Amino acid sequence: NPLAAKIVQDNLLHHHQRLYSLHDWIVMPNHVHVLLTPCEGVSLERIAHACKSYTAHEIQRRLGGSGRMWEPDFFDRLIRDQKHFEGVAHYIRRNAVKAKLVQDATLYTYCSASPRMRDRLARAGRP
């Protein structure tokens, strides 16, 4: 659902430079990938809760429905080095192509591969 995807993406951008530094993301039809660096003193649990709680309530408010929207847990990965970071970023940016949603990753609206979204990220979190 485009509205649900927009709510999730806008929320990810909202927390950039508040809870974390957002590097790459993609909002897929049934999951989300995010590459971020938490701000000092901010746990991944706090980040996941902030994102899941708001988006679940907002999506249900605007689209209807009730009940659990997100899985209760999340999968995290410690980035070992720059090569690993770049590999994960590439995987995230190419996820919509791999899933055959688009032929060119830059055309997927709900992804950091989109030039328009990269521009929004550059502006996000600024006073």
Please give a quick description of this structure.
The chain is an alpha+beta fold. It is built from four helices and two strands, in the order H-E-E-H-H-H.
Characterize the structure shown.
- The longest helix has 20 residues, at 44-63.
- 46% of the residues lie in helices and 12% in strands.
- The protein has 4 helices and 2 strands, in the order αββααα.
- By secondary structure, it is of the alpha+beta class.
Strand content: 5-15%
Terminus-to-terminus distance: 31 Å
Strand order, biggest sheet? 1-2
Q: Unreliable segments (pLDDT under 50, ≥5 consecutive)? A: none
Number of helices: 4
What is the radius of gyration? 14 Å
- The average pLDDT score comes to 93
- What share of the residues lie within helices? 40-55%
Helix and strand pattern: HEEHHH
Q: What does the largest sheet look like? A: 2 strands, antiparallel
Q: How many extended strands?
A: 2
By secondary-structure content and strand pairing, the structural class works out as alpha+beta
Query: So what's the overall shape?
Result: globular
